[in-house]
Specification:
By secondary structure, the protein is an all-alpha fold. The chain is built from one helix and no strands.
């Protein structure tokens, strides 16, 4: 693995950013469901 410490750090930082973005997106979707449906589950029929 010929990468430098700086390159490795950038990859790690980018990975964390992507994970955090996905978590935020899921939280927003959850909150929208609760606000509009009043429930956290999908439609039952």
């Amino acid at each position: 693995m010929g990468e430098t410490l700086t390159q490795r750090r950038r990859v790690d930082d980018e990975g964390l950013r992507v994970v955090k973005s996905c978590q935020v997106e899921r939280s927003v979707v959850y909150l929208i469901r609760v606000l509009f449906d009043g429930t956290t589950k999908g439609s039952t029929g």
